[in-house]
Structure to design on (868 residues):
């Protein structure tokens, strides 16, 4: 049986033994670094290399997706030209990044590392791999290697079986090299590879044979290579394993329908920064399990109907940073029941979203539309998204009118976290009454841009009473540029989109005055399959247009802009050289463009309240020419226009203009008050306000109302100025210099009101007696005037005397002043001062100070007094 003293002695001996073991380990590894007070015990036969750090660091396992503690030798950024030797045998991770190694894989130092799992040779000078027997022998002695980093080296090609001796390799990074060619069997033997990065190299094509030896590959990075076309069925060998495919920055201009065929398990796909002009809808339908799609920074101009349809597993979609995107059409996103986040931001020309652009998106919670050119988001768009919780609309030129009343109504509803019940197709069961509140992201930056009285106000702070229930149409500027060039004989599509309440109707006016628009087709005629009425030509008959443009010529009936999928084909009966085709959404297609069809085309959007117009100049580019040739058909029309005054009233005037080629395509009218005989003095000095309005195409008369009576106005008709507001300032100056068509101006004077035609005779003024206080002031002023004059003269005289400093003694000065006083008395100056003669007194003062305070000579003094 042990004594108590021996029981206490045993723990102390164990503690001393443990300390000795720790000290022995440190003495055997002098270069080892201590990390978190638990150093890696490097064996004494192979200490940590000089200048390197041997530590225990976390390491991520690509297979298990977990972090583990691993012995790490860190030799980064030491300017090494060869691998350090010897290396600890149980090294797990070897980091040799940012050195000057040109032959890392051939080094014999790698042969004694059976536990090596990760090797980082990035940012070195490696020029070849797998081409020597030494490399093959070294790689064969690394059976545990799972991650190999060779980024940012000088590799130009990969031979057949370059990594065939690494059967356990799971991650291979070859980004940012100079690879121009890969052998068809470059990746042979990599049956365990999960991640392959070959992005940002110089590959010009994709060979499907590369992927035949990669049955387990899950992530493939091919972006940054100058590949313009992907082969059909190019990734079929990866169909059972590939989950993420990155094709950004490759220069892709299009995608074949079967380019992505066979990728049944693909979940994430990126086409970032390519040259796609249309959504590859057919190719995307070949990827049924897609969840994340990135189309950012492409050249897509329109999101057309059905571009994103029946992608039932898609959760996130990115359509950002596209300079060419101008419009999102009806049902562009349709039947995406799993979509929860939609990003359409930083598109500087996106100015139109169709009210029914989003259809059957039952789970969309976040809608990002900030930093675009949107003026409104229609109420129907909001109601079609039953689960929407937040929307981002800041940094847009928002119109706080009838199209934005939903924002004020939503802000007044109580917030609820419940989700509206939906059907299996993603539709709400009761879309009209389900209560919810949509949160604005960055509400302080969500400001009104129009109308002027609400400018710079927060949208959330504007009440529904301040927004009208209906509003004029506004044509979105993005889809219709001011200039379009087309080759002779080619086809052209002009897109015109507008929003208003009520929904506007759209029609076009050609350079020759031909109107293409909705025809009055009754239901009976449609049932009898009667051909639609041909478009009519706008002749010389003046069409009256009031100040609110309600009487201007326009479509009498027909399908509104944004109506169904039926196409309306129109052919001018008297123009056999061209063919026009008008689509229901407002797109005008011109087939086989000829010289006679070049010129100014005007789109007109009209509803019950008024209309809006926007014009585009179509230039014909001849064969072999890089710049379009603008035909002066518009200028010939505008130069012949004459502005006339038909009628002038008290508060209105009727103007008209005619042209030798029919109605003008598009004009702008401005007026400004020049002077008013009835204005007050304060109004005379204030700068008059100038007003302007756009005139509908084909209009030849205008009733200008709300004028002031008995006022001169300067009214000008600006020709060919439509669409200038959308151009940059420099281009506007250049265009005005080229098309220097002066405006047609007239000066009018509104009539005098009947009450002011014969003013009453003025009454003679009455002379009122002066009050007693006024008479007292006048008497006192007349009594004290002579005395005040004498005191003033004496004060001036003494000041002059004080300034005089003669060079003689006091006796001489006294005699000189006495003589001067006598002389003045002799001439009556002093007596005149006493009697109040201010003229002589003033002359005497001037004579005394004629030389700046010096004593005047006798001759000068006599001359001055004589002059007085």
């Amino acid at each position: 049986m042990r004594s108590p003293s021996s029981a206490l002695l045993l723990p102390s001996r164990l503690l001393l033994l443990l300390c000795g073991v720790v000290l022995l380990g440190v003495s055997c590894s002098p270069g080892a670094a201590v990390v978190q007070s638990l150093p890696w015990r490097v064996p004494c036969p192979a200490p940590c290399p000089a200048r390197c750090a041997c530590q225990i660091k976390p390491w991520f396992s690509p297979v298990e997706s977990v972090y583990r503690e691993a012995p790490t030798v860190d030799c980064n950024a030491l300017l090494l030209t060869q691998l350090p030797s010897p290396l600890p045998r149980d090294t797990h991770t070897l980091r040799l990044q940012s050195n000057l190694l040109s032959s890392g894989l051939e080094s014999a130092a790698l042969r004694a590392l059976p536990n090596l799992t990760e090797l980082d040779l990035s940012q070195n000078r490696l020029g070849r791999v797998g081409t020597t027997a030494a490399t093959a022998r070294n790689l064969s002695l690394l059976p545990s290697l799972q991650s190999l980093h060779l980024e940012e080296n000088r590799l130009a090609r990969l031979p057949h079986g370059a990594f065939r001796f690494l059967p356990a390799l799971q991650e291979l990074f070859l980004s940012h090299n100079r690879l121009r060619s890969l052998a068809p069997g470059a990746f042979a033997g990599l049956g365990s590879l999960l991640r392959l990065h070959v992005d940002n190299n110089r590959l010009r094509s994709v060979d499907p044979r590369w992927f035949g030896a990669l049955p387990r590959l899950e992530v493939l990075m091919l972006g940054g290579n100058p590949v313009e076309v992907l082969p059909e069925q190019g990734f079929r060998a990866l169909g059972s394993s590939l989950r993420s495919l990155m094709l950004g920055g490759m220069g892709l201009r299009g995608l074949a329908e079967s380019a992505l065929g066979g990728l049944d398990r693909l979940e994430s796909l990126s086409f970032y920064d390519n040259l796609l002009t249309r959504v590859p809808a057919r190719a995307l339908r070949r990827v049924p399990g897609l969840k994340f799609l990135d189309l950012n920074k492409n050249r897509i101009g329109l999101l057309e109907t059905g571009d994103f349809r029946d992608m039932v597993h898609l959760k996130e979609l990115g359509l950002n940073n596209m300079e060419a995107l101008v419009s999102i059409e009806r049902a562009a996103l349709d039947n995406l029941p799993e979509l929860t986040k939609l990003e359409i931001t930083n598109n500087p020309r996106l100015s139109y979203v169709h009210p029914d652009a989003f259809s059957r998106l039952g789970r969309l919670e976040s809608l990002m539309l900030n930093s675009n050119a949107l003026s409104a988001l229609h109420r129907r768009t909001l109601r079609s998204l039953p689960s929407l919780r937040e929307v981002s609309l800041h940094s847009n030129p928002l119109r706080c009118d009838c199209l934005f009343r939903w924002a004020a109504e939503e802000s007044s509803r109580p917030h609820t976290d419940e989700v509206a019940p939906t059907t299996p197709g993603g539709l709400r069961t009761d879309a009209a009454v389900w209560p919810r509140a949509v949160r604005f992201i960055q509400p302080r930056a969500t400001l009104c841009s129009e109308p002027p009285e609400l400018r710079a106000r927060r949208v959330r702070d504007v009440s529904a009473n301040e927004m009208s229930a209906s509003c004029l149409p506004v044509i979105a500027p993005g889809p219709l540029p001011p200039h379009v060039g087309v080759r002779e004989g080619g086809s052209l599509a002009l897109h015109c989109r507008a929003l208003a309440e009520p929904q506007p109707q759209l029609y076009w006016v050609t350079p020759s005055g031909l109107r293409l628009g909705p025809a009055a087709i009754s239901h009976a005629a449609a049932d009898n399959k009667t051909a639609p009425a041909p478009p009519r030509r706008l002749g010389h008959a003046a069409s009256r247009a009031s100040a609110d443009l309600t009487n201007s010529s326009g479509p009498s009936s027909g399908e509104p802009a944004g109506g169904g999928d039926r196409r309306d084909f129109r052919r001018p009966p008297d123009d056999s050289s061209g063919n026009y085709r008008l689509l229901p959404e407002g797109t005008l297609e011109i087939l086989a463009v000829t010289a006679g069809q070049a010129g100014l085309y005007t789109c007109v959007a009209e509803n019950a309240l008024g209309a809006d117009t926007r014009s585009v100049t179509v230039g014909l580019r001849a064969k072999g020419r890089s710049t379009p040739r603008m035909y002066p058909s518009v200028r010939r029309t505008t130069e012949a226009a004459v502005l006339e005054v038909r009628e002038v009233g008290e508060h209105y005037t009727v103007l008209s203009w005619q042209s030798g080629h029919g109605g003008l395509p598009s004009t702008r009218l401005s007026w400004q008050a020049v002077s008013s005989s009835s204005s007050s003095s304060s109004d005379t000095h204030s700068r008059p306000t100038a007003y302007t309005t756009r005139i509908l195409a084909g209009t030849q008369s205008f009733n200008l109302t709300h004028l002031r009576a008995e006022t001169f106005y300067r009214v000008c008709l600006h020709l060919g100025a439509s669409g200038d507001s959308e151009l940059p300032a420099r281009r506007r100056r250049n265009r005005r210099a080229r098309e220097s068509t002066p405006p047609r101006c007239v000066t009018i004077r509104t009539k005098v009101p009947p009450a002011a035609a014969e003013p009453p005779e003025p009454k003679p003024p009455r002379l009122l007696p002066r009050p007693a206080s006024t008479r007292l002031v006048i008497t006192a002023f007349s009594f004290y005037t002579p005395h005040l004059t004498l005191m003033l003269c004496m004060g001036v005289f003494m000041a002059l005397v004080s300034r005089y400093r003669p060079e003689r003694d006091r006796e001489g000065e006294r005699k000189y002043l006495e003589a001067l006083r006598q002389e003045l008395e002799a001439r009556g100056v002093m007596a005149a001062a006493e009697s109040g003669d201010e003229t002589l007194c003033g002359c005497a003062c001037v004579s005394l100070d004629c030389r700046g305070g010096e004593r005047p000579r006798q001759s000068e003094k006599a001359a001055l007094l004589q002059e007085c």
Notes: The longest helix spans residues 772-803. The first strand starts at residue 53 and ends at 61. The chain has 14 helices and 44 strands.
